[in-house]
Amino acid sequence: MFLIKKIISSFLTLFLVSLISFTVLKVIPGDPLLSKLGTEATEQQIETLNKELGLDKPKYLAYVDWISDVSKGDMGESIRFSVPVNNLIKKRMGVTMNLALLSMGITILIGFPLGLFSAMINKKRGSDIISTINMIGVSIPSFWSGLILMMIFGVYFKVSFKGVSLFLPALTLALSRISITSIYLKNIILEELNKDYVKAAVAKGRNKNNVIVTDVLKNIMLPMITIISGLFVKILAGSVIIESLFNLPGLGNLMVLAVENRDFPVVQALVLYSSIIVISVNLFTDLLYCYVDPRIKIS
Amino acid sequence: MKKKIVTLFISLFLLGACGSEKVSKENMVPSNKIVVRITQDPDFLDPHKAVAAATGEILFNVFEGLIKIDSNGDLYPALAESYKVSEDHLTYTFKIRKGVKFKNGVELTPALVKKSYERFLDDAFPANRIANEFKKISKSIEVNGDEVIFELKNANATGIAAFMVGIVYEENNKIYGTGPYYIDSYLPGEKVIVKKFNDYWNISEVGNIDAVEFKIIKDDQSAIMAFQMGEVNIIHRLFAGYEDMIGKNSKLIKGEQNLVQLLAINNNAEPLNNLKVRQAIQYAIDKKEIIEGASLGEASIVGSASSPIVKSIYNKDTENLYLYNIEKAKELLKEAGYPNGFELTLKAPSNYQVHVDSSQIIKEQLAKIGITVNIQEIEWGTWLSEVYKNRNYELTVIGFEGKPSPYTTFSRYMSKDKRNMINFSNNSYDQILRKISTENSDDKRIELFKEAQEILTKNVASVFLQAPNYIVAINKNIDGFKIYPCYVLDLSLLNLKK
User: Fold this and answer.
1) pLDDT greater at residue B182 or residue B11
2) Which residue range is the domain that position A239 belongs to?
3) What CATH number did the domain enclosing B313 receive?
4) Fewer C-beta within 10 Å: chain B N or C terminus?
5) How confident is the model over B35-55, as pLDDT tens digits?
6) How many structural domains does chain B have?
7) Contact B381 A101 (CB under 8 A)
8) A266 vs chain B: nearest CA distance in angstroms?
9) HEC profile for chain B?
């Protein structure tokens, strides 16, 4: 029952997303044909293309046409590149997914231990250094840190990008996430440490760090799942900037290109696909909650 | 559980590394391959449809016309062996070259030349400007032995340059050219790869580059980084300010280009419709300061809508019509009824750094005579529809590319022209351009062009600022690069040193 309700509400969300993305794109200034043809286009050329692409139809009809095509899985054809949108997206899906997973891996591998460590040494020597580094990490925008990383690795150390082509962008994408994750994890652990069961365990003479590893970690599973699912969505969003910066042929890069060119079919498809991803990640997280903590009842 | 997660991520790590290694090997295959940076996707890989100047850069190497342009801007017969023009400039006879092959192996014949022209003469065809202009003047095309005879309705202003349109062979919705390179593949948003055409009719003149990847990198900073790391070998059209960053293994080639940057004024907008106001703005602008500030000195002053590189046409006297003079500017504003100045909005296209920088300097300069300029940076897509198409603006800064035919460069300021985004409307200007289009004598046409420029500048149609230099960053191992006076990158001249 819960699942059916969830799925119905997901479809409703998707419908709203499609409606909003469609209207917003029609309202913002800009014309896909002008973007394609530039300042030297002839009147006739614009007219011919307009008809060819069906851009001269009334807007509500265009929406109905589009949505009925989409329900059949056909996302239409890109105005700028004159190829099916699905082909464009399929080719780029791999790059973005690899980038997101790699970057998530780096974030978790560094961020979680760092958060755990900084919770353990909280208010001891060295904790200030970690929080300072974390604050810097959070504040530096990724388009800047990306350029600096490129300079350090590419220009000074002459490390070739080839062979590790996804590593540097994934690291850039991970940098600020690492800090946020570790700060967040530290706070959750510290909060947990104030709870009675920890105090009791410590009062009984157990080592605090030992308690953290054996008991606290188990109890913070739920917030950790939230962090990870949120991380995935945020990294996917961050890939827009990183892919443009590193010139990676992924979905983020395509998104920027499509928006700049007012390539409506591509933007709409990307918005729709990303909302599907976000909705499914959330759905999956909900289900995972129940699995990890059976006390949570599906109702 | 935890172990499993860790192993999963480690394996993903390795997977990522493996995947990218494959790509790098693939990239290394052809030995004489170079990578050229381009800033945007081509619009159409078809010479009869393409309008973007940047596309011409690629297509020049793939498609050839009866007539071709060389690096001096001179026109020479290419797919035609020779040509004759009748006294009245209405009949053009081309003797078609023998032994020319299209990429698909088909031999070029006069009948195929005719077919290629007929392709875009069809009304349903979305033809670009060059094709369209030809359409307007074409009366009939006939094949006679090894010749093709073109009859025109009226003498055309572009002259023999009208026959630069690329000749294509269309088969199953694919088109083939006769050029020294052919398009191997195009990955939208990523790259266009062209490869050498070994059956090219003039193959002995083609250098030793086997394949060229036109890599699309929008961001200048990223492009420079890629160049420094050797991933890109040529940055065509680098804007000033990056010269120090290109590294030791490369060289810079500089030249003038056929491009005029202007402070475009909407001649219909209040109070810019007042000639005195426009004159005041013209007097208040110090072009030298803009060249120093926005182009770091890498540009030449222009007085009119033509770049000084087009020597025969350019009217140098226009540079002295209005010399920088703040007092005179203030006086003119007073006469126009604005002693305390007014406010204006300048919409600058944010993707062109040089235009944005120039806008800042213009803002400072106009502040000195009491005009407050509010700069609005807008992205290119918005600029095209708001400023260019709807003409909803007061001021903007933009660059107009000069064409091989000067008539096309100047006709954009005619009252009724669709490209007349500044709403310039002047009867005598229109008349002069109409005269040019029917004038047969070259000397007289040059006189008329000079007169047209004087009208443009005198009436301050806009403030013509500078012709930015053209800077190419190129790997030291690549020889033979030549600068063209139009938007072209001639790959056939390049040689890779071993």
Assistant:
1) B182
2) 93-292
3) 3.10.105.10
4) N
5) 999 988 888 899 998 877 778
6) 3
7) no
8) 12
9) CHHHHHHHHHHHHHHHHHHHHHHHHHHHCCCCEEEEEECCCCCCCCCCCCCCHHHHHHHCCCCCCCEEECCCCCEEECCEEEEEECCCCCEEEEEECCCCECCCCCECCHHHHHHHHHHHHCCCCCCCHHHHHHHHHEEEEEEECCEEEEEECCCCCCHHHHHHCCCCEEECCEEECCCCEEEEEEECCCEEEEEECCCCCCHHHCCCCCEEEEEECCCHHHHHHHHHCCCCCEEEEECCCCHHHCCCCEEEEEEECCEEEEEEECCCCCCCCCHHHHHHHHHHCCHHHHHHHHCCCCEEECCCCCCCCCCCCCCHHHHHCCCCCHHHHHHHHHHCCCCCCCEEEEEEECCCHHHHHHHHHHHHHHHCCCCEEEEEEECHHHHHHHHHHCCCCCEEEEEEECCCCHHHHHHCCCCCCCCCCCCCCCHHHHHHHHHHHHCCCHHHHHHHHHHHHHHHHHCCCCEEEEEEEEEEEEECCEECCCCCCCCCCCHHHCEECC
